[in-house]
């Protein structure tokens, strides 16, 4: 049984003349059955009191005992036994002292620890220090078992002997407590949001090939200060036996626990298994039944813009794989000997083989190789027997493919330049890709045109699903409004462009009307509150004899209001905020334009439309954040081995708390 958990109600105090050590002046020795226990008279901590345990662990405890140090001012001279500056000691885990055998197993058997006679307790806060340790582990992703590593424990002992080292269970409990406190803060932040929330769903996995899968739910929103925020809400392990319907129910449960199911505007995902499109549809249908979604859920299910660009890039590389392999072999041949490098006139820092797991490095390799095409051709003529050479036609096709890839690299860099990229930033970049695919599909080379057609099919699938929310986000950018949509749609669709533009116009009007109704309901609630307060105030000002006070000063202007209503030309005030906004000139484009600041400044002029902008601009059109590698060919984020092996509830606590703490540090 662990000493600290032992019931000592029937323990017997042992008084023996054999206890000669001065350390027993600060401990009581009691016996429970056959077990002897030493209890610190200052902090009541229980340690082994067995005669075979010696007294070193008791002296070590007194060095760290805050209550004894604070009462005595300095560490007792008797702890050090004379004036020696160094002693050989054994460092124990005092949180788990059980019996003599277990204590011997936990000995770290080390070091000369240096003591000073004038060490004082500088007010060390054990609890705060423990939680600082737990926050450090969470923030940097350290394994929880670090607290039991010999080197770490020695380091802490030497750095601060007063700090009471903790075991794995204690630090895990501290991490869970930090998670609970931080979760309460996030809950309060979400509760006071003025607008809606969009949720991003991303699939994570462990580090092994057959590892577990996790779903990460992240909230995207614009807060009351018009700042874009994203916070991880849930991180849970996916049961492989779960059907799509069961998984949809699990996600709905998470949303309801956060009390945001009625606040959702959109849900973004790459629709990678296990969170397929069928799961998203079930969630949308469930929310639509409760009338929680805008525009009948048309804008709810959105896809990842980075994923579709990544997939098109990998399609290009796959179709050119044979030629790319020849390029790799040629580079290996060049690097194989100094004589070949000299003949090739090659600098080692420029020409290098790509990393097949990152397709942007393949693009760079091909681009540099194209610049050295003549050297490769000359090498083929001299060493034809040793190489499977690249033909002129293959070089020409590679040039076109590199042109594709460079466009995709630029677009992905634009999409990942910010941690919280707003939805209005995607439309121009994706429209540029759309135009280029149309152009590439007309290439006279059948290989190139076929490649472009296949990429266009993949892009069109994404575009058909997401063009509405992309267009509306662009319209709510005062630099573009309807003009950019009209410009690109005319290029895309020719004669049918006007009909598609009208569909977008009708959708944004419907969205505005829904926000207008919500705003009126909110205003009505505020008006009822005002009337109730005004009525109570009015009753309070009645005279005792029942005579009412004279009219309020504003009441005298009732006739003036009637005059304004009768003299104002009809239609001048009948335009909606949306109509006024679209009729005003475009805001000048500049590199440092801040769309959120624009809406913050113009909220008094467009109170309803600004609420709509707040909800639309927060929609995450990509589940790739700036800090992760967006060019990986098998893009899936991974949980570290040390965390993945923990209990699912602990994994969720660590992953969520890490995101919250990092976000807080970035904000500060």
UniProtKB/TrEMBL annotation:
Q: Does the record bear Transcription regulation in its keywords?
A: yes
Extract one GO molecular function annotation from the record: zinc ion binding
Chain ranges of the BED-type domain: 18-73
Primary site of residence:
nucleus
Q: Where is the signal peptide?
A: none
Highest taxon of source? Eukaryota
**What's the subunit arrangement here?**
Homodimer.
Name recorded for this polypeptide? Zinc finger BED domain-containing protein RICESLEEPER 1
Protein species of origin: Noccaea caerulescens
């Amino acid at each position: 049984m662990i000493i600290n958990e032992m019931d000592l109600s029937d323990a017997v105090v042992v008084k023996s003349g054999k206890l000669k050590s001065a350390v027993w002046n600060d401990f009581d020795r009691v016996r429970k059955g056959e077990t002897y226990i030493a209890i610190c008279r200052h902090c009541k901590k229980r340690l082994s009191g067995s005669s075979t345990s010696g007294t070193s662990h008791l002296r070590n405890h007194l060095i760290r005992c805050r209550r004894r140090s604070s009462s005595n001012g300095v560490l007792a001279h008797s702890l050090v036994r004379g004036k020696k500056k160094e002693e050989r000691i054994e460092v124990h885990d005092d949180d788990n002292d059980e019996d003599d055998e277990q204590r011997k197993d936990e000995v770290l058997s080390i070091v000369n620890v240096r003591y000073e006679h004038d060490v004082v307790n500088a007010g060390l806060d054990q609890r705060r220090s423990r939680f600082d340790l737990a926050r450090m582990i969470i923030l940097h992703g350290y394994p929880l078992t670090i607290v039991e590593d010999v080197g770490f424990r020695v380091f802490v002992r030497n750095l601060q002997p007063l700090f009471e080292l903790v075991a794995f269970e204690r630090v895990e409990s501290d991490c869970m407590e930090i998670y609970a406190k931080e979760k309460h803060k996030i809950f309060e932040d979400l509760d006071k949001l003025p607008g809606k929330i969009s949720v991003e769903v991303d699939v994570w996995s462990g580090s092994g090939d057959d590892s577990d899968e996790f779903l990460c739910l992240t909230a995207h929103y614009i807060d009351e200060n018009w700042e874009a925020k994203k916070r991880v809400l849930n991180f849970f392990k996916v049961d492989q036996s779960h059907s799509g319907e069961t998984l949809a129910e699990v996600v709905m449960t998470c949303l309801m626990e956060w009390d945001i199911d009625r606040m959702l505007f959109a849900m973004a995902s790459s629709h990678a298994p296990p969170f397929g499109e069928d799961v998203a549809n079930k969630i949308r249908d469930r929310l639509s039944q409760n009338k929680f979604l805008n525009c009948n859920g048309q804008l709810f299910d959105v896809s990842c813009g980075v994923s579709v660009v990544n997939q098109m890039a990998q399609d290009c590389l796959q179709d050119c794989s044979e030629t790319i392999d020849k390029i790799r072999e040629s580079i290996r041949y060049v690097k194989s000997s100094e004589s070949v490098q000299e003949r090739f006139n090659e600098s080692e820092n420029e020409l290098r083989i790509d990393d097949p797991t990152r397709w942007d490095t393949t693009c760079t390799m091909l681009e540099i190789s194209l610049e050295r095409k003549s050297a490769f051709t000359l090498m083929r003529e001299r060493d034809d027997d040793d190489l499977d050479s690249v033909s002129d036609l293959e070089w020409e096709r590679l040039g076109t493919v590199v042109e594709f890839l460079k466009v995709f690299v630029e677009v992905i860099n634009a999409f990942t330049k910010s941690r919280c990229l707003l939805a209005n930033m995607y439309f121009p970049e994706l429209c540029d890709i759309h135009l280029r695919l149309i152009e590439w599909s007309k290439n006279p080379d059948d290989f190139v045109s076929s490649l472009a057609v296949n990429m266009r099919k993949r892009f069109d699938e994404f575009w058909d699903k997401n063009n509405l929310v992309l267009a509306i986000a662009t319209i709510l950018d005062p630099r573009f409004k309807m003009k950019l949509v009209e410009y690109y749609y005319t290029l895309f669709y020719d004669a049918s462009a006007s009909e598609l533009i009208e569909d977008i116009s009708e959708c944004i009007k419907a969205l505005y009307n829904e926000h207008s109704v919500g705003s009126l309901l909110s205003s009505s609630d505020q008006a009822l509150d005002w009337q109730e307060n005004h009525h109570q105030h009015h009753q309070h000002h009645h005279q005792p004899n029942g005579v009412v006070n004279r009219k309020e000063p504003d009441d005298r202007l009732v006739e003036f209001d009637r005059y304004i209503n009768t003299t104002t030309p009809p239609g001048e005030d009948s335009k909606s905020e949306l109509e006024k906004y679209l009729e005003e000139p475009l805001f000048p484009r500049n590199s440092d334009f801040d769309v959120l600041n624009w809406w913050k400044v113009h909220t008094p002029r467009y109170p309803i439309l600004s609420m709509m902008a707040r909800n639309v601009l927060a929609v995450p059109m990509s589940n790739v954040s700036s800090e992760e590698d967006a060019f990986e060919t098998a893009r899936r984020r991974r949980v570290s081995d040390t965390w993945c092996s923990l209990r699912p509830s602990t994994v969720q606590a660590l992953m969520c708390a890490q995101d919250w703490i990092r976000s807080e540090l970035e904000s500060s």
